[in-house]
Amino acid sequence: xxxxxxxxxxxxxxxxxxxxxxxxxxxxxxxxxxxxxxxxxxxxxxxxxxxxxxxxxxxxxxxxxxxxxxxxxxxxxxxxxxxxxxxxxxxxxxxxxxxxxxxxxxxxxxxxxxxxxxxxxxxxxxxxxxxxxxxxxxxxxxxxxxxxxxxxxxxxxxxxxxxxxxxxxxxxxxxxxxxxxxxxxxxxxxxxxxxxxxxxxxxxxxxxxxxxxxxxxxxxxxxxxxxxxxxxxxxxxxxxxxxxxxxxxxxxxxxx
Length: 256
What we know:
Blueprint: H1 3-17, H2 24-57, E1 64-68, H3 74-83, E2 90-95, H4 121-130, E3 138-142, H5 145-148, H6 151-157, E4 162-167, H7 172-182, E5 191-194, H8 207-218, E6 223-229, E7 234-240, H9 242-248
Parallel strand pairs: 1-2, 1-4, 2-3, 4-5
Antiparallel strand pairs: 5-7, 6-7
Helix pairs in contact: 2-3, 7-8
């Protein structure tokens, strides 16, 4: 019997045992569902409620909910559920819809593999609209960020600004073009969330932390303060644009 068949048999046996009360597998499955995953969901719910409360107290903060990395539409559905009754924002999903890109040396970690976290654009739209979001409020931008996050995409959505920017693209190489792209969409009160802030064991030289630090150093006229944090995510509020940043927000018209 080869190892693949043996592994399949073990998986089937585990699934059966996990549904039999009082077995070790049943207790493990119950704990994961009732404690571990509930904790993760409660953290996300608290994060989105905090953003909703902040934006409502400081109203009007108009604009878009931008999401970079939309696998399985979980965060997009959370965003809709927590924002639909208070704000008239449009919701934009930027994703390759082909999974992760080629993993470069700086982003190598066992859990990341090319093509992983793959949800098709059609499936994403179906999930979100079934959750109640009207097609008219949902926009998708398909493509890997080094190609899709360009001046043409900026012109498509400007001059409207971003109310919330949710960055869930895991990798340093993906986060860098995201931060460059969103700069003209920033306004006083824009909330930026890094979903994978503590990935790579919180190493400041890797992942979203490194990309954010480099962005801050290159744009010292922009001001931010820390906002809500969870065991996974970290958010910031834009509190100042500065003269240079305000000038950079003007995307040149190629016909002028």
